[in-house]
């Protein structure tokens, strides 16, 4: 279905460089897919405009399932722009915390989402406690509504896009050409996240991380708006027993078969 562009080894070397095309983050360019536009709405699906022929790949899954890494590799493989939508919720949480607000303050969180100009270069976005705060703001309908439209416009770029998150295949891009639901056991996900954070110099206890992961699974899966769900037409990819290269190859096989 999609033209192959690079070998796995080439992907590894260009990850982080070529996976997401340069993005203007000053919020002044209304035509940019990550700028805000009026009247965002939720649910029901908002397919890309007729005539848009880009390929959209939707990747959903729980915390630390490997969806972000796979999203980057798949985007590099096909030469598509990539958006890790979790970073948007993390950025909302960060702007709240920077302003001295609490993550459970609905009015403040909604206002922060409406004014969001994400800076993906901010290393604090990947901090452990921000994942927790992001999951709190992500359960708020006003926050999600404020972020829907920019995600859909990112997806609807003429060349297509890869998006990863929790509701890409169900809410943001129900019309996606290929949908993956990436998962792994909570124990394996906790182990991976601890390794990732330790590599960044953050010292985290495995049991505490497993608690985090379980709490986040519960909150993301039980919220009333856009809960974490596998779309009926999404293909399941369990990465528990797979290293990243094997998971990447399995993901490509799924994408090429749809
Ligand atoms: O990286 P990790 O898998 O830990 O989480 P993330 O993808 O950065 O997302 C952080 C939180 O944002 C999640 O726990 C979700 O609550 C929320 N989120 C969401 O609700 N919808 C998305 N499309 C992406 C993230």
Short description:
With 258 residues, the protein is an alpha/beta fold. It has one domain (52-257): P-loop containing nucleotide triphosphate hydrolases (Rossmann fold), CATH 3.40.50. 45% of the residues lie in helices and 10% in strands.
Question: What would your notes on this structure say?
Answer:
The chain has 258 residues and is an alpha/beta fold. It has one domain (52-257): Rossmann fold. Helix content is 45%, strand content 10%. It has ten helices and five strands. It has helices at residues 8-14, 67-78, 86-98, 106-114, 128-137, 141-155, 168-172, 186-199, 206-222, 244-257; strands at residues 55-60, 82-84, 160-165, 178-183, 235-238. The radius of gyration is 17 Å and the shape is globular. Mean pLDDT is 85; it is low at 3-31 and 38-45. It binds cytidine-5'-diphosphate (CDP).
CATH architecture label name: 3-Layer(aba) Sandwich
Low-confidence sequence ranges: 3-31, 38-45
The CATH topology comes to Rossmann fold
Q: Structural class per helix/strand content?
A: alpha/beta
- The Cα radius of gyration reads 17 Å
List the helices and strands in order.
HEHEHHHHEHEHHEH
CATH superfamily: P-loop containing nucleotide triphosphate hydrolases
Q: Provide a count of the helices.
A: 10
Q: Summarize the main sheet.
A: 5 strands, parallel
Mean pLDDT: 85
